[in-house]
Amino acid sequence: MAKGGRGPAAHRGATPAEPSFRLQSKEMMTKTPDIGLLGETFIAPTGKNLPSIFHAPGALLRMRWIQLKSSLRDYFSLLILKITSPQGKRWYNRFVKLHRSRVVPTAIALHREMYGAFAAGDATTLRRICTDGIYDQFRARMAARPRGEKTVWELVKYNKRARIVSHRAARLPIDGAAVRQAVVRLSSRQKLSRYAADGRLVKGTGKERDVVEYLVVEKSYWNWQEGDWRVWGTTEETKLETVLQWQKDALDAGN
């Protein structure tokens, strides 16, 4: 979601994961298959996406209740990942290290590296730090650039302190396989400039924009060996309509 503009990354939406779990160990560790955004990932809404306490108090209460349940679910998903993942023979080395404090700095570094590589047309770096879906989108957009055009991306500043708004895990039905996903809210001022082959600034580019992004980063585990954090894409705040659809799907599944 972007306020006053959207970053260069293509928004991928909150599509539930529909993974194929016939994964090979080499592929898991070196390519990180794109399994999608974990189902019912809740991003607390703000502003116009948050129901009014005066006009829709029932809807607001429902959103807060879903937010609380989602927070508890996410916490326990990480706890389960930790306690079911023996790492070594010594008791203090038995569990997956979550290192929550490293998530935000890592997301910020990936955010800068990803957009810088996109502007520079550096497909090698994008392949290393992005999952399949967003990498393919970036590659297609780079290939569509006019011949001789130069793109420059600049991060002017971060407007607010970045923070985690979702952090969860899911075990895959293969022994020792799992995935962690975190959504980090980044509020920044950016500038994307495009220069034609003759050096002239392309009209409509080069303007500073304030952007709010919900960057999704993930890492995979195979045989309890931890992979690197990579960028899945961006998502948006959860709307009331989305919550109602989740509840409808749950009722339909129970019938």
Automatic annotation (TrEMBL):
Residues 1-22 are annotated as: Disordered. Residues 88-236 form the Tim44-like domain. SMART domains: Tim44 (SM00978). SUPFAM superfamilies: NTF2-like. The keyword Transcription does not apply. The keyword Transit peptide applies. Keywords: Mitochondrion, Ribonucleoprotein, Ribosomal protein, Transit peptide. GO terms for biological process: protein insertion into mitochondrial inner membrane from matrix. One of its GO terms (cellular component) is ribosome. It comes from the Eukaryota. It is found in: Mitochondrion. InterPro entries: Mba1, mtLSU_mL45, NTF2-like_dom_sf, Tim44-like_dom. Belongs to the mitochondrion-specific ribosomal protein mL45 family. This is Large ribosomal subunit protein mL45. It comes from Oidiodendron maius (strain Zn).
